[in-house]
Amino acid sequence: MEDTLELIYETGVVNNEKGYFLGDNREVFENVLSKYDDYEGFMQQIEDEGLFVTTNQIDTRAVACRWHLMRPTAEFIAAKNKCIINGITSSYGYIAIASTIANLIADKEFKLAAEKIINGFNSNIWGVIATLSLIHIECAAEMDKNSLEKVIVSKIVLTNCI
Fold first, then answer.
1. How many CB atoms lie under 10 A from the CB of residue 61?
2. Which domain of life is it from (predicted)?
C-alpha cells in the first residue's frame, strides 16, 4: 500500500517539461505493482478511466499554470487536502481519519498513510487504491479549474505561462 500511495502522489506522476501535472505513467505503475498478485485488474481499471498518459501528451490542465505555481504555498496544500478529504468521505462515507490520511499524503508520509488506510477501510485494497487514484486526478482537475478562474479574474495572459 505504501509504494502504491507513493506512485499515485509522487513517483508515478507524469508532468510536462514545466512541471505541470498530466496524468500517471503506466510503465512506472507496471514496474512497481507487477510484484503483487492480481494487480492486472487495478491496472485495467486505471487504463479504463483514462488516467495513464504518455510523456509527450499535452493536457488542457496545463493551462491553469497560475495554480501550479502556487504548489508550495499553504493555500495549495489546504485546497488539495480538502479535496482529498472530500473525495474520501464521498466514496466511503464519513470517516474520522480522512483528514489524517490527507495530511500524511501531503507530507509524503506514505507508510503512515497506508497504515491508516488499511486499518480504516473495510474494502478490497485494490478498490481503495483505484479510488484514491481517481480522487487524485479529480482533485488535480478541480484545482486547475479553480486556478483558471483565478487567472481569468486576474486578467493574466494564459499563453505566457504554458
1. 22
2. Bacteria
DSSP string, 20-44: -EEEEEHHHHHHHHTTSTTHHHHHH
Distance, CA of 3 to CA of 17 (rounded, Å): 25
Does the model's pTM come out above 0.70? no
- Domain with 37 in it: 2-160
- Cβ(112)–Cβ(2) under 8 Å? no
Average pLDDT value over all residues in the chain: 75
pLDDT for residue 149 is more than 70: no
What is the secondary structure of 65-122 as a DSSP string? Answer: HHHHTTTTSHHHHHHHHHHHHHHHHHHH---TTHHHHHHHHHTT-HHHHHHHHHHH--
